[in-house]
Structure formats: C-alpha cells, structure tokens
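Anyone up for a design puzzle?
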C-alpha cells in the first residue's frame, strides 16, 4: 500500500470547503445501513451526501461531486482501505478523510499513518460503536464559519423548475415494529448540485412563495398517496405545514376538499412546529374540529423543553405529540433527555393523544422510548427518508428491520 501511494503522492493543499454554498461528503462503507445512518446525520448538518462501497465508485464520485469530506468505514470485511487511499491520492483529493473503525484496529492505525504520510487531510479516527452525536461533534468544526445562505436557492426558482419532491420516512409501532405511517419531507433535486437539504431553500415566513411551497407539499403528498395505493402499499401520511398557512383564507376548506374519498384512506396528519402550535392554540382548536370530519388530524412537532406550556389545559387540538429528536436521540443513556421524554408521554396520555418519538438512532433509544410508553417511533434505526419509488418498494415489507 505504501509503495503504490508513495509513487503518485505529491505536495497537496490541505483545505476544507471547496464551495461556499454546501459542503459535500462521500460515505464509504460496505454496509448499506451504516452508510444510510451516517449520511442522514450529515445531511442534518447541511452536507450534500453521496454513498459508495467500492474504489471505482469513489473515483467516479470524486470526479463528479467534488466532496469536501470522505468518511471511510473500515471493518473486517472485503473492503480494502489501501485501494481507497490510492484513489484519493491519485485524484489529488484536497478535502478531509475521517476513518471509522474499531478502537484498537491495526488497520485503522495503518490508514491514519499512511494517509498522513502522503498528504491526505486525516482527521482523528471515529471509533465504533459511536452515537450520532459523536459523529456530529467530529465534523461540525469542519463546516464553514460563515452562515449558510438563507435560502441558498430561491424556492420560487425550485418550484417553477420542478426540482422539488417529497421523500418519506416510516413511522413505526414502538412495540410491534410494524410500519404505521410515514412522514413526508421536502427535498430539492437541483440539476447541478444534486439533492439539496431543506435548510438551503426553505423560505422565511414572509416570503411570497411560502404559501406556494405549502400548497406543493399538500398536492404532492396526495398524489404520492394515490401512487402508493396503486402499488398496494398505501400508508397514512404526515406532512409539515406552518400554522400561518392555515390562517390563509379558504386554506382549511380547500384542504378538506382535497382529501381522498377512497375507503383505504386512513387520514392525513398535519405536523406543526411546537413553538407555532403553542402560540396559536386557540385558532388551531377552532379548525381542528372541522378538519377531523374530513379525516385530518393535527400533530405538534419537535416538542421538547417547552412541554410545560401545554400543562393545565382543558384540552388540546392535537391527536399526536412528537418529541423532538434532540431529546430522543441518546435518551437511552441520558437521564435529562429521558425525563423530558417521560413528561411528553404523560402529557399525551393525559390528553388522549398518541406520543411519537423522532430520532431513534440505537437499540438503547428504542428500548427506552418503548418502556416510557411512546406509541410510534421514527429515526435512523429504521432508515432515512427515501424517494417515493424507493419507499414504495420498501413499504412492501411491513415489519421494519434494518438490512445490510
């Protein structure tokens, strides 16, 4: 490995962040579920991700995507890390390399040494097992210090260019692990930059295209529901809408009118950010009754430290309370997070609502939220959001189990 790399290595500039717009990462690992897990964590940080499992795939990605960071999974399997290091050196890779492997692995130590000797920007290795928070901490320092453009791509351009689509993440019964629904998450497939995360195009509330984006989400979700029905994989869907959109004249009436009349339609859940929902409880209570007659329910999203603001009310207009991922991820080993989650479950039970935990990343998290009494769970442990066709194929298997 040393000889081959030594012949082709030359002086290199050690940099990170080849573009201001969006940092990019390539996740290299032979195990598909590990690639998906790490990719989803990095996407949440604002990275545009790509994945590969072979040296030839990595070579193509380096040429096409110009990643700023390569996560190199190193295990006791068929992956030969020397081949990946050779590709990185031959292509003059100027980003950073993060090796991921067992704490005392001789191979990981060799990769660190050889990569450093031949000019690759090797970060301190990430040892397994690790939590999502550990990965976030390791790469957050590499993000550009200047704030990301907000939005980097104007949503009006994306809407008119037809670049937006909905991806779906399963919601799973906390005890049976059977799929019980899915949440729609908006994504942009830019013709130049590929899949762009929402942080780079979701507009501010005062943007004139904000309502148009909400209407796109509604219309596309209903189209996708029919697509899934035709493939005998129809599931109950959740979408995210801002509370101000529902105050738009005729918005609630138009939404009710659009609901499918098909007997297989189990209902649509509208998730509203907890800060908006708590500040607009009276209005949401007014519209919740009308919407319920049309099989539409309201859910409060990303509930966390603000849970006490829902205490002592006669009733709430929500059929679900969703604990935010910042309090769910790692709750199996964090007493404070576990306490917040327990209070959210108690609130939901007290109001006759269902408790949902978002951000399940480990078996310990799953065991904890199940013990606490959550009804539904979602998170990386069961897979990241998928494009519609991929989700339709995955939905043919009702029980959620990770596959390598």
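Challenge accepted. My sequence:
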């Amino acid at each position: 490995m040393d000889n081959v790399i030594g012949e082709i290595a030359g002086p290199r500039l050690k940099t990170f962040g080849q573009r201001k717009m969006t940092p990019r990462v390539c996740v290299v690992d032979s195990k598909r579920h590990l690639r998906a897990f790490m990719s989803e964590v990095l996407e949440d940080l604002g990275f545009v991700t790509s994945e590969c499992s072979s040296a030839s795939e990595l070579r193509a990605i380096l040429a096409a995507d110009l990643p700023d960071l390569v996560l190199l999974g190193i295990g006791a399997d068929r992956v030969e890390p020397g081949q990946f290091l050779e590709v990185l050196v031959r292509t003059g890779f100027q980003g950073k390399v993060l090796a991921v492997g067992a704490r005392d692995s001789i191979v990981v130590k060799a990769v660190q040494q050889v990569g450093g000797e031949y000019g690759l920007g090797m970060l301190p290795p990430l040892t397994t097992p690790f939590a999502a928070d550990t990965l976030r901490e390791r790469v957050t320092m590499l993000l550009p210090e200047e704030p990301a453009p907000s939005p980097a791509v104007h949503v009006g351009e994306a809407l008119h260019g037809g670049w937006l689509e909905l991806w779906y993440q399963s919601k799973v019964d906390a005890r049976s692990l059977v799929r019980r629904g899915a949440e729609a998450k908006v994504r942009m497939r830019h013709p130049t930059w590929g899949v762009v995360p929402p942080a780079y195009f979701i507009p501010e509330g005062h943007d004139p295209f904000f309502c148009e984006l909400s209407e796109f989400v509604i219309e596309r979700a209903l189209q996708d529901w029919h697509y899934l029905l035709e493939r005998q994989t129809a599931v109950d869907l959740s979408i995210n809408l801002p509370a101000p959109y529902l105050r738009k004249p005729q918005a609630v009436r138009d939404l009710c009118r659009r609901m499918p009349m098909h007997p297989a339609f189990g209902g649509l859940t509208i998730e509203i950010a907890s800060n908006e929902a708590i500040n607009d409880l009276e209005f949401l209570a007014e519209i919740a009754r009308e919407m319920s007659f049309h099989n539409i329910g309201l859910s409060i999203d990303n509930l966390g430290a603000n849970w006490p603001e829902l205490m002592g009310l006669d009733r709430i207009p929500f059929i679900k309370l969703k604990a935010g991922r910042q309090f769910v991820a790692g709750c199996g080993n964090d007493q404070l997070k576990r306490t917040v989650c327990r209070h959210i479950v108690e609130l939901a039970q007290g109001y006759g609502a269902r408790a949902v935990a978002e951000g399940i990343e480990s078996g310990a998290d799953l065991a904890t939220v199940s013990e606490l009494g959550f009804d539904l769970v979602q998170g990386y442990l069961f897979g990241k959001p998928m494009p519609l066709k991929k989700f339709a194929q995955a939905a043919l298997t009702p029980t959620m189990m990770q596959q390598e």
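A detail worth pointing out: The chain has two domains: 2-140, 155-394.
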